[in-house]
Specification:
5-stranded mixed sheet; mainly alpha; Serine Threonine Protein Phosphatase 5, Tetratricopeptide repeat; single chain; about 450 residues
């Protein structure tokens, strides 16, 4: 295999390392087998990125998040838990799960003002988190990394009632009981990410919007923990001025006052104009990253997403994600097109506030490309610029990747001691982000193989 072909294959196999379900941007599922022995989350206190949108935009987004399902179905009424929320954990919770859950619940109490506590008996808890083997879960719901269901308290109940109105969000008049199903045998970061997204969904929004730049309620999966925007949405959801059973019009009437009080930096105003995402865009993204279709067909779907973004005149995160998708999928098919797409995505992500995390993802890809083409100083510069953003976003898998790229770049520049320190730092994050030691070694070897001559003697 020639150098260019080897480079293309290695990039395609190993560089989108930090995605998560339902749009899994990673080319491999987490390694099978028991969860790794990682005893604590590697991050300190969370410093969420604050919301960047105006209150008028946030009010519009709140309504679309709260009164629409991802399918486009309109919900007839606003629902939430009324009163304190009690939570129970069942099944074989991985070692890191409880520490991550405690951190999340503390944030929900402090940042979203939600009265939520763990330790309730499963039979009476308003919210249950059940851990079960991935194979058992996906035998029933093949594409799900994790999910939440209303009206049940156990997996057995879900199996019994899954085709009934009992588990239909649209039939609820308030939220009283729901269960989140999470694999017990996956990597710590995926468990944490599932806890954040599914607990937030159980408490609040049921929809995802591609236009949101700073939220986990976006199928692009760049954000892995709840952001300042997400906490504001949840705080507004549980504001005393709202109640289960309200219509969309009733909620819309109260939202401007609620947001002006909760987020004075967002200014005053009513609702921003609609900004719909054509269904064709979502279909193109799903076809590009979904499990079906040939590589050429998936690449063409990414090109379709770019064409839709350009035709819509977008310069927001939807346009950036379309170019990012083209870059990711072009790595194995058309390297020159892929690199151009990554540069275009980075320009878009840098063009507006609130998209720093997305820009960091792109800069990881560009750093890897610079490393592979013997431009170690550029690779180091890109990785150094992305790392603080990624650390703040608490993405251990991506941070480990950046540190491994830094290590290879430093070795290429003759800075052996600094390279060793970078590899040690990478290991702090790799077990949490990648899982078992064998998987960590594979990822490190992939990065080492990018540097010309690096794979042979690393």
């Amino acid at each position: 295999m020639g150098f260019r072909a080897r480079l293309t294959a290695t990039l395609a196999a190993g560089l989108a390392l930090a995605g998560c379900a339902p749009l899994d941007l990673a080319p491999r599922a987490p390694a099978p087998g028991p969860a790794p022995e990682v005893t604590m989350a590697p991050f300190g206190p969370t410093r969420p990125f604050p919301p960047q949108a105006s209150n008028a935009q946030i009010a519009r987004d709140f309504l679309e998040l709260s009164f629409r399902m991802e399918s486009g179905r309109v919900l007839p009424r606003f629902t939430r838990y009324e009163g304190p929320v009690t939570l129970a954990v069942t099944g074989a919770a991985p070692p890191t799960a409880m520490a991550d859950l405690d951190r999340l619940l503390a944030r929900l109490r402090a940042e979203a003002g939600i009265e939520i506590t763990a330790g309730a008996p499963p039979a009476t808890a308003g919210l249950v988190v059940e851990f079960l083997p991935r194979a058992r879960m996906q035998a029933l719901v093949p594409q799900a990394a994790c999910f939440v269901v209303p009206g049940v308290s156990t997996w057995a109940e879900y199996r019994r009632f899954r085709r009934s109105a009992r588990v239909d969000w649209g039939e609820l008049d308030a939220r009283r009981r729901a269960t989140i199903f999470i694999p017990s045998d996956t990597v710590p970061q995926e468990v944490r990410d599932c806890l954040h997204e599914e607990i937030a969904q159980a408490l609040g929004p049921l929809n995802d919007l591609y236009r949101l730049p700073d939220s986990v309620f976006n199928d692009d999966n760049f954000h892995t923990v709840l952001t300042g925007f997400d906490m504001l949405i949840l705080r507004a959801t549980y504001d005393p001025a709202l109640a289960s059973g309200m219509t969309e019009a009733e909620v819309a009437q109260r939202l401007p006052g609620i947001l002006a009080r909760l987020n004075p930096a967002g200014g005053a105003g009513g609702l921003a104009p609609p900004d719909p995402t054509p269904r064709a865009y979502g279909e193109a993204i799903e076809a590009a990253f979904g499990p079906r279709g040939t590589k050429p067909a998936r690449l063409e779907a990414a090109r379709d997403a770019v064409r839709i973004a350009q035709g819509s005149g977008w310069t927001d995160t939807r346009a950036g994600f379309a170019w990012f998708a083209l870059g990711r999928l072009g790595l194995a098919e058309n390297l020159d097109e892929a690199v151009r797409a990554f540069f275009r995505a980075r320009d878009i992500y840098r063009g507006r506030p609130g998209m720093e995390v997305q820009a960091a993802h792109v800069e990881m890809q560009l750093a890897a490309f610079a490393l592979s083409t013997d431009r170690a100083e550029e690779a180091l510069l890109l990785a150094d610029r992305a790392a603080p953003i990624v650390r703040r976003a608490e993405n251990a898998a991506l941070l480990a990747t950046l540190e491994l790229i830094r290590a290879e770049a430093l070795d290429a520049l003759g800075q052996a001691d600094a390279a060793r320190a970078a590899r040690l730092d990478a290991m702090r994050w790799a077990g949490y982000g990648f899982g078992p030691e064998a998987e960590v070694r594979r990822r490190a070897e992939e990065i080492a193989s990018l540097r010309p001559g690096g794979g042979e003697d690393t």
